[in-house]
Structure formats: C-alpha cells, structure tokens
Amino acid sequence: MSVSTLNTSNPHQQDIQNILGQANRVILGKNGQIKLALSCLLARGHLLIEDLPGVGKTTLAHTLARTLGLHFQRIQFTSDLLPADVLGVSVYERERGNFKFHPGPIFSQMILADEINRATPKTQSALLEAMEEQQVTTEGETRPLPTPFFVIATQNPAYQIGTFPLPESQLDRFLMCIQLGYPDSKAERELYLGRDRRDMVADLLPASDPGVLPALQRQVAEIHVADALLDYLQAVLDYTRQTGRFKTGLSPRAGLAILHSAQAWALIEGRDHVTPEDLQAVLPAVISHRLRSIGETHLSDKESVQELIAAIPIP
Amino acid sequence: MTTKTATEFEHRSLSPLNATWAIITVALALASHLRHLPIWISVLSVLLLLTRYLLLFRRPVRSLKLLLGVTAVASISGVMLQYGTLVGRDAGVALLALMLSLKVMEMKQIRDAMLAIFLSYFLVMTSFFFSQGILVSLYGFSVVVLITGALSALNEGKQTTSLAYKLKASAGMFAYAIPIMLLLFVLFPRLPGPLWAMPQNRHSGITGLGDEMTPGNISQLIQSDAVAFRVTFDNTPPPARDRYWRGPVMSSYNGRSWRMVRSGILTDTEQFLSSRDLFNYRITLEANNKSWLFALGLPVTHPQGTAINTDFMLLSKKPIDKKFRYEIESSLDYIIDEELTSKSRAQNLQLPAKTATRTRRLVNEWRGSAQSNSDIVNQALQYFNSNPFVYTLKPPLLKKDPVDQFMFETRRGFCEHYASSFVVMMRAAGIPARVVTGYQGGEWNRLGNYILVRQSDAHAWAEVWLTGKGWVRVDPTAAVSPDRVELGISNALGDEENLPFFVRAGYSNSIVNRLSLLWDSANYRWDTWVLGFGPEQQRALLSRLGLDNPGWRHLIYGMIIGLVSLLSLYALLFAWHYRNARIDPLVKLFHQFSAKMTRQGIPPQPYEGAIDYGRRVSKTRPELALPVQRITQLYSHLRYGKPCGPGPADLQLLKKLVRALQI
Description:
Number of strands of chain B: 19
Structural class of chain A: alpha/beta
Strand order of the largest sheet of chain A: 2-5-8-1-9
Oligomer: heterodimer
CATH topology of the largest domain in chain A: Rossmann fold
Radius of gyration of chain A: 20 Å
Distance between the termini of chain B: 23 Å
Strand content of chain A: 5-15%
Strand content of chain B: 5-15%
Number of helices of chain A: 13
C-alpha cells in the first residue's frame, strides 16, 4: 500500500466539502464549531449550544438547515409554553364531525429550540422525550417524526434568573454541547463589511441532494474503529472513573457518544477510520456537559478538558 | 519532561491547596517531636504554621520578610540559650523544627513547598533518635505515606486527583517497598553493639532497686507499674513461690539502712551445685543505670560482660543504660559457702551498738531455749506469725531505733521492715544473716509465653547461714502474709492500698488485662526482634530458615539475590498487569522514529496523536515536513485504519521510510 491511497476516495466527500464551504461563507471564523455541528448531525445526535445572545446560534442552525435542504422550524421557549404548543393538538372540526390533529412545530427535520431553559420542565421533557424516541405520542396515538430529525437547543448561561436549567440526566440526551464564542477580529471585520447574514441565509440553496444526508449518516456507522483506538477510549473512560476527580465517571452511553462523534468527525476529515486525533477533536464537545468535577460545579471550560486529554497517554 | 520545563514547573507559584498540603505535612512531622521539644519551640512552630495557613486567605503582607528575619535570629539565639549549642541531637532537632516552620512561612513557589516536604521526611526520621517504640514507628510510617501523597499532589499541576487516590498510590508504593525493607533488615550484616553511639541523656527518671535499702524504699517502688524485666524460659518456669529474682545483697547495716558491700568475684559456681537441674532462661532487662543483673537462685553460667561475685550476685561491667538482653542458667538446688570465712562471718554478724536493745533481749530469751540455729529461725518466723503483725504498703513512720519500734509498737510494715528486723534478730542471735533485694513472682503472659516482672514486684527477703546448709533463703514476709509469695502483691494487699491500676487484684481476668498483656507481648516481640535484632538474633533467625552460621559474604550474596528476585517479581507483576500492552512491531518502528526526532529536540508528547505530532514537527522543521508526515500518516493509518492489522509489506514500507529519514 502506498501513501497516496491513504485517503480513501468517498463518493460524497465533495458534498461534505460543499456543505462546509457554504456554511463557512455565512458564519465566519467558526470552522471548528461548524464541523462539530455537522458531525453531531451525521452521528444522528442532537446539539446543545450554550452561549450568549448574538453570537450566531440562530444563524448557524438556519444555515445548516438551508445548506442541507432540511425543513426548518424555530421554537422560542418561554415560561408559558405548553407541551401542546410544541407537539401539536387535536382540534374538533365541526364540518367533518371529528377531531383532527394539528401537528406542532416539532414535526420538522431541523428544529431550533431557542432558550430551552426558559420553559417549564414539563415542556422541556416533552421535547426531550420526542428527541429520544424519534416519535410523538399524544392522545393515545403515536406519530413518527420526520427523518432526519435534528434538534439544536440553545441555552443562555449568563442570565439564569427565572429559568429551569436542564437536569444532568437530560443534558445527556444531547450528543454534544458547544460554545460559539466571539469571532476573532479579522472575521468580525469581514462580518461588518459583508452582506446582511439574514439575506445570505435566505438566498442559500441546498449544497447537496436530499439523499446525501441519510447516505452520509449510514457511512458514519461504517467508519473503522481499531482495537488500539478502543484502548484509548477506555483509557479516557477509566481516567474519569478512577482518578476521583469527578463526581461520577463517564457512562457507557457517553463512551458510545464519543465513539460515534469521532466516527462522524473522521468521515468529515475524509478518513475511513478513527484516529486518536479525531477522538480528541470531539472529546471536549461530547464530555464537557456530562462530567461534574469535584469542587467545581461544571466542567464548562474546554481548557480543563484539554488538560484531561494531556493527562492520558495514548496507548 | 525536559530540564527546562522541569525548572519552569518548579518556579510556578504555589496553589492554596498545595500550600495547605505542605503545611499539614510539616505539622504532622512536627507533632512527632512535640513530646520532647521545649514548650516555647512547640508553641512558636505551631503559631508559625497557623499564621501561614491564615495568610493563604489574605493579600501578601509586605513587612513579613523583616518579621521572619527577626524571628529566625531570635529562634537561633533561643536554641543557643536553651541548649548551649546548635549541634547535637536535641539542639539540632529543635533548630530543624524552627527553621522548617520558618521555611513554610516564606513558601511562594512549588520548589519551596518541595523543600519543606523533603525536610519533613527528615524531621520524621529524627524522631527515631528519641524513641523507637511501636507507636512511634507506626506514626512515622503513616506520616511518611502522607508526605509522599503530598509530594505527588505537588507534582500534579492543575490536573488534580482526589485525596483518596493519592494516598492509595502512595500506600501502594510503600507496599512495594516493604518486602525490600524487610529483606535488607534481615540480611544486612550486623555489627555487635550499636553502629554509632547516640548522645543520649541519662535516664534520670528511671526507677528501680537501689544499692541501699531504707524502710520505705521498696514500698515507694511498688507504686510503679513500670516493667522491670521480662523472662522467657526454655522449659517450664519454676512456680511463683520459687521465683525469687535476686538483686543487690546487703550486709552492711547502720541501724537504719542496709548497704551493699564490695566482695570478690567467683570463677566457678558449679562446685556449689547439688544437682544438675538447671533452668535455662533469657531476661530482657529495662534500662536502670545500675550495674547489677537479676537471676534466679544461683547463676551457673553468666553472659559476656558480666561476673558473679561471692554474694552470688550477677554484676555487669558497665551500667545498664539501655535495654539489655541476656541468657543465663540457674540452679535452685545448691549449697553455697559451706565454710564461711571469718571476714564474711564478721560482716554478716555486724550490728551497730546500742540499737534494737529490746529485740536483742527477746532473741536472747530464745537463745536459751533453742537447740539449734534453725530453731531460732523458726522461732523468729513464729513470732511474726503469732503476733498481730500486718502487711501493708502504708506503714507508720518509724523514728528512733526503727527495729524496736516496729517489733513491739507499730507492727505494721512492708517486706523491707520484715526482712530488716529479721536479719537484725538473726545477727543478735549470732547467726550470720543478710538482706537480699530483688523481685518476687511476676505475671505470666500467656500470649507471649513469658513472665512479666514489674517494679511493683520488688521485694526484700533474708538469707541466713546455717552450718552444713550454707546460705539459706528465708522470707519473713511469707510468715506474715503467705499470699504475697504464693499469689503476688495484688492478692496480699487490700484494695485501699493505692496500688497502681495494672497491679490491682480482681483485674487480672478483665478485658483490660488481656489487652494490656497483648500490648506488652507486642512490645516485647518488637524489642527482641526489631530493636534488639543484632548478630545473635540474625544468626538464630537464619538458622531457623536453614542457614547455619552465615558469614557476611553470604549475607551480602543473599541480599543481592533477594533484591534481584524481588525486583524481577515486581517486573513480572507489572508485565502481567500490562500484558495486553505488548509492544507490537509497528509501535516499535514508530518508537524508533520518535527517538530520532527526540534527538532533534522534538520529543512526542504521550497524549499526542501521530498525525498531530507529524504536523508539529513539520512546523518547527519545515524541511522535514514531507518525509515525517509520510511516516506519521502511514503509521496512523496502519495502526487505526487496518481491520486486520498491518501486513509484512506495510511494516517493510514503514521501516524503509524511518530508515530513510536522514537528519
């Protein structure tokens, strides 16, 4: 085998590059986060964005939906939002003499659940249950959600008064949790000089055929995971379980989440196998909301995940 | 980690958590010395540590440096005033404790804390200059485990682990060290006697039998439950009533107190034996600063450095200033001094004039009616027995002419009163007699199979010389209180007598007694097998293991073999533990590559993936980018991308690429 054939040619590699390229044109200087969001989507997970207002959460969600050609709905969560407002409700139709189900905004391929921590736990759990089950059950009837089904929820970490922060068990439903952060000065300057983002998003055309996304999602599962990589993954899991630094170590579900995300990342990187670099790339986004370190309340800063990575030698 | 980064690390500022660690370890190390440090040093050190701890939560104080300087000078002068020197055990340890506390005060960087922690190790070790008991050793060990935990905390940087994890790791290291420690302890060639002389302070507070007996001496001694000595017998020990541990023999009397008299040395004691029934036993004598040893009856053989005198006392050439262990053979069946020299006869009949006149009159009455000297002995014992004499620890004070006063007025006394007046009576009757002091009885420790003799077993009795029988032991106390000899001191005295707790009656079967026996037996074993582990014990232990009379060469070979096998055992354990991490040829090739790069000053980080490493190398050495990235990408692909592992051709290619990398 020669080095030139290392990157196995993938028929959809061009599509991935198109998607990323288009998203990067709208959202400037956030290549890493866009790749993470895309790999989250490819790994069939849901994404939580924790950040201040105005850094481009909505634009990111919107851009991804447009670029992938997905049907997009935005739900603004408020404290008086009811589960029925999300899931839909049956209304009596006098002309027909029976009830007709009016599907809620959740029946879309991509949902932006904005400020999810403003809603009551009841409404939150209605959404989270739908995310987990990929279906909605109301009034005794089960209705499947469209595929692909992808939720991007946002949470504002700064103003917590009057909010209902998601419990730890429900944070686990999100495959990844990312922060966008401020753009660097060059990107920000470009943003001020460029066109209005809302217009740009409205003008976006799908960068790939409708069949590409499901095909890519299927490919993620086929990305090869070597024994040596599982050794590394287990070393990471063991470290969180045995050092006593964390209240609880990572669960097997978290292990699976790391693995699937790393597979998706490897696919985006154009590899047919997962390398330790892939795992390290997704690790902060996958585990930062799942670990509670002793003493601190939250392992929120990615720096400490980087330190965790630095503490574990690759076997 | 390279040297450069190591120094950078050392100069990092100390986190409050790690500072607390250092303060705690220094405090624990200091605690082992609080017992013998002067109070002002203890208080000052504790204050300094406490201040440092409180300062953790405040802004830095600017005038601290000046204050510390003043304190340092004051401390040095204080130690100088206290001890008159700055060197030596006591002054040295005091100075170390103070300086260490001051060092803690000025801790800023990690290296300061490291220094404090390393000095704590040393400070803990110095506590063995003062005491080597079980508790001190246990404390020392646990503190060292903690200090090691603190050391690992200090080396962690920001990535911290929990306290339990660190202590577990530190204890694990100890678990590996203990077999090595035992091996070296058992096999290291021992020199007879201590390796170096510890400048010890004299045993000022030590109690024991003196070379003079005045009524009141022994009843004082009885108040102490301190251990006098412990005895192990090879065979069955004699019954309690025959366990008279002979100590100082006193023949000189001045009307009030009895004294020892200088006497010659016996070279052969076997001539006095009536039978060959010998008791073979070993005594571990606590330090008493006296130059006599204790033995049952007539000592036949005597240990090196000792001699037997004509009073058949066992004498040591130098005072017993530390625990002394000796093996000895004794006979209870002997006739000594069948012929008494005139000098000895005169000495043992000596009585100061104008004393004990009433007693002399009484004895003269007996003399008239008695057939023989033994009759007089019996008559005297009979006198004690039939008159209302009381055996008590609290006799009334005797003033002028104590013998007469005791015999006819108070009639309340302790063993020394009975022994003393009995000998006076015998001498008055013309029978050579003398007082013998020592210990009687002792407690059988069934857990350790030895006899524990305490100071409270101290006793005084008499010896009379009878024609044809030589010196015969007579215990007048037995005539008054037979229980004292048969059952021990606790059963002979009432509860109101203020005996020390461990000696009281009714306690002998309690759980406290059993615990105290257990503790004493543990101490005894510690003394014999750990502290007293000299050439003799080493030989005994090794011969039990089947090695007879090994020379020091054998010991050194044994040590080397033992060490090598222990280390190989550990290596095997580690290999078994990491058995899955067998280095495959692919990883080996990559190691060759990274070794090449390490020589170029770009070592791989343990957490760094191969591709990332290749990129990093390319950044610092762009001219190597192409070949290096070919290698790292191929390696990563072979290691993580091949479902059935790399084939021989893949390895060959990687090998070629690594070889071709010329720098």
